[in-house]
Amino acid sequence: MTVTGIAAALLHVDMVVLDLDRAIRMYSDLFGFQVVEDCLVETDAAMFLSGGATRRMRLVFLSLSPRTTMIELIQLLDENGKSLPSSPGGKFDWNLTYLVNNMEQAKRALDAAGLRQVSDEYVAALPKLGKSRVVYCRDEEGYLIELVAPA
Fold first, then answer.
1. pLDDT at 5 over 80
2. DSSP three-state, residue 139
3. 1 inside domain
4. Of 33, 34, 70, 147, whose CB has the highest number of CB atoms within 10 Å?
5. 3-state secondary structure of 112
């Protein structure tokens, strides 16, 4: 099979949750997912995802096996470590994340397709999964799409 689009793989599905520990237990105990990464980060991406409310979030990546699409659980946190909901108006509760090999090519393809980029480009640095470049856009229906490329 020849791949002709910009996506190399469906990397993970993001979900904002209010009770991260409860979500981890459910996905681990019921579905058999294992924690791949669990970290607290302060980043501009959190500002984007929270609608400007916070720079802090706890991220937990779960996987069934090394070669499967992951789930990324996101808990947005205030300065006291209390959980926050996603951005006002429900603009972000979940999204699909695609791995792309070339971010510049992907951005040009999005522009040519008429899809709007809705975030700046961010660099995400995670302790176990490493560094990546991240951009968010919206599809024709308004759903959020995350593009991730190696940094």
1. yes
2. coil
3. no
4. 147
5. helix
